[in-house]
Amino acid sequence: MSRSLRKKPFIDISLYNKVNKYLSNVKNSGNITTWSRRSTIYPNMVGLTINIHNGKKHIPLYITEEMIGYKLGEFVFTRKFKSHTTNKRKFKKV
């Protein structure tokens, strides 16, 4: 379900401050690290690499124009998919 149109897109204040500080700094060293997966990607984040926590470790994510309006958590998965069982393992020849 999307957010109401009368409300603005949500971004965590600490992440917003980190992005503005990074953009205003002439010497851009390192990446931005955040735990806020619920924050929306803003246009001024394009071109940045943000480390997003997936519950275990931080995953680097390069922000592109197509990602604007989506949440940060949509691009970093929290669960590891283990494949379905194959027919070879199910049925052994006797």
Distance between the termini: 52 Å
- Proportion in helices: 10-25%
Written as H for each helix and E for each strand, in order along the chain, the element string is HEEEH
Q: What is the C-alpha radius of gyration, as a whole number of Å? A: 19 Å
Structural class: alpha+beta
Strand order of the largest sheet: 1-2-3
CATH architecture type:
2-Layer Sandwich
- What's the shape? elongated
- Fold-level CATH name: 30s Ribosomal Protein S19, Chain A
Figure out the total of helices. Answer: 2
Mind telling me the CATH superfamily name?
Answer: Ribosomal protein S19/S15
* Highest CATH level, the class: Alpha Beta
For the sheet with most strands, the description reads: 3 strands, mixed
